[in-house]
Amino acid sequence: xxxxxxxxxxxxxxxxxxxxxxxxxxxxxxxxxxxxxxxxxxxxxxxxxxxxxxxxxxxxxxxxxxxxxxxxxxxxxxxxxxxxxxxxxxxxxxxxxxxxxxxxxxxxxxxxxxxxxxxxxxxxxxxxxxxxxxxxxxxxxxxxxxxxxxxxxxxxxxxxxxxxxxxxxxxxxxxxxxxxxxxxxxxxxxxxxxxxxxxxxxxxxxxxxxxxxxxxxxxxxxxxxxxxxxxxxxxxxxxxxxxxxxxxxxxxxxxxxxxxxxxxxxxxxxxxxxxxxxxxxxxxxxxxxxxxxxxxxxxxxxxxxxxxxxxxxxxxxxxxxxxxxxxxxxxxxxxxxxxxxxxxxxxxxxxxxxxxxxxxxxxxxxxxxxxxxx
Length: 374
Known about the structure:
Mean pLDDT: 84
Distance between the termini: 29 Å
Structural class: alpha+beta
Helix content: 25-40%
Radius of gyration: 27 Å
Number of helices: 7
Region (Disordered): 1-24
Oligomer: single chain
Low-confidence stretches: 1-34, 43-64
Order of helices and strands: EHEEEEHEEEEHHEEEEHEHHEE
């Protein structure tokens, strides 16, 4: 017999991901940043842009799993932060149907909305809620756990991502945890520290107005003789610097490019991040198919019970429950494939200040396809 809907319990979602089917990412390359920046400043006064190569020499994609922001092989690119579009603004790509789940969202993060995380409330899509309110057990991934509402873009990353069905797709608790651990947690950690809205644009303006010079004594150190200049990420010198300033007369600011790889949180940086679920027509998770089969059995049992009832009130009550349960099963068969994606793909492009006028940003990338129903 159909069960009475239980009181709603909010399923916390930090948008974790699932088993990584594919992750296009190069091996961590902490040394490559330094080598490339040095080469750029030694070659034609910094006008040449060469591909960034990892210390090991590997520059192609290898299979990996956990995202490693600002640690992958990267390429210097001369682009403007203005070309990335509005920063720290959630981009909605639409819903699978008017009451369904997100088709994918994106954000270009310069400043985290919340630094520490916590307090996540995903909200359920209306199409999921209408089924759950009739029979929550149809949507259980296991006996104590209803299917998990997963954020596409983490609610801590950008304003407007929390508690909205436009940023939700349905997965399992395990997939949600994997997404958190393998993707979101590394991204959150990488965007901690001295970052603030507008810092990237200020960096570009400073680099245009005040190009740095590689020191003769140590070409990995880029220096300026510009008293009072605002150069985000550069260390301002009070007194005498520890290096010979040549070819400058003095050093007022400097960047040790070895720290670009060692401590990227000290420098201007942006993460262009997107999550796109993949829905398959007529494809439901195995646990949903199981729940539907069990519900069909109970509907059949209830119909047999209904045939033997003589009391009109009892017959009307049971007939209404059967009708509602049948409606929920039919609606789940129809719309379930647009609520439960089979996988989702997370992609992150990293922009780290290079302090090279000819290639202002070191651009790297992570991407992974994860099982949403693991």
